[in-house]
Design a protein that fits this description.
alpha/beta; Glutathione S-transferase Yfyf (Class Pi), Chain A, domain 2; Rossmann fold; 2 domains; 3-stranded parallel β-sheet; globular
């Protein structure tokens, strides 16, 4: 099955290994991702904070390219990109004048034909069909992840049906259950990690991240999993600083959900590029005989 694919800026830069994993893992699950041509940045949080029209126009151009691709669905693995693009699609559906204004300057017009899917939506479909369980060669026994959704995966400033609880989503937990990992119960799964505030308000961001890591450790997690490149980068890169400042001695690897799926499929650490993590991640997997 072919599907349009919008990787977003992070997956072509700091989180390039997430892009590698998405393509490899989903290919083995029968999904051939087709990256839309000439895509642009979705604007992320920067555009939304500076220019409301630009915050809609940037994702709108990508939606026009996706509509013109001829595919019925487009997968967006980055939680921030997915949020910005979905919100733009809904805004244009409800405001004809805005849609006409933006379309006037686009070579590929927004038609509203493409269905947007997150990585968790795609994996949920593979759980339901039984393909995820069938593709798993090994159970992830001993892995106790804290499933971290962050503040963008489930929360929207408009009425959007996410198919579950906003405060207690279960998508990653369901995937973990199929793969044999024991997801912990904890209280910070949808809290904000500070996102880009790690650059301009580091103290606040570090405090937010310390709450997340401390609770995960206290509940017995031996790793954190996420589907957001910004969350993964923050919690991975800043853990040493968090630990030093807030007295947290433990270090938890921060995996993308695609890494867990890939490991269960028997894909090697080199292929998944697990060595790209800041916090050492291979030792835990080897200690549990998963690699």
């Amino acid at each position: 099955m072919e599907m349009a694919y919008y990787p977003g800026c992070s997956l072509h830069a700091t989180s390039a290994f997430y892009d590698v994993q998405c393509r490899d893992v989903l290919s083995r699950l029968g999904v051939d991702l087709k990256e839309i041509k000439d895509w642009n940045c979705c604007g992320a949080t920067s555009a939304a904070k500076t220019n409301e029209f630009l915050a809609v126009a940037l994702p709108a151009r990508n939606l026009g390219l996706a509509d013109a691709s001829g595919y019925k669905e487009m997968m967006i693995p980055c939680a921030l990109c997915y949020s910005r693009t979905l919100l733009t699609q809904r805004a244009l559906e409800g405001d004809k004048d805005l849609r006409d204004s933006i379309n006037a300057d686009l070579s590929e017009k927004v038609q509203g034909k493409i269905k947007l899917l997150s990585i968790l939506d795609v994996l949920a479909g593979k759980v339901k069909s039984g393909e995820l369980a069938a593709g798993a060669e090994k159970k992830l026994a001993g892995l106790k992840p804290a499933c971290y959704y962050g503040c963008l995966q489930t929360r929207y400033p408009m009425d959007i049906d996410i198919g579950g609880s906003v405060e207690n989503p279960q998508g990653m937990e369901i995937v973990c259950g199929v793969l044999g990992a024991e997801a912990i119960q904890w209280g910070y799964k949808t809290d904000c990690c500070g996102a880009s505030a790690s650059l301009n308000d580091t103290d606040v961001s570090l405090r937010l991240m310390s709450n997340i890591v401390r609770d995960a450790v206290a509940r017995g997690a031996n790793c954190i999993i996420t589907a957001c490149p910004m969350c993964q980068l923050n919690l991975d890169a800043y853990q040493p600083k968090i630990g030093e400042r807030y007295g947290i001695s433990e270090r938890l690897p921060v995996f993308f959900i695609t890494e867990l799926v890939g490991i269960s499929m028997g894909i090697g650490a080199a292929e998944l590029q697990i060595d790209k993590h800041v916090i050492e991640a291979i030792e835990l997997l080897k200690g549990l005989n998963l690699l």
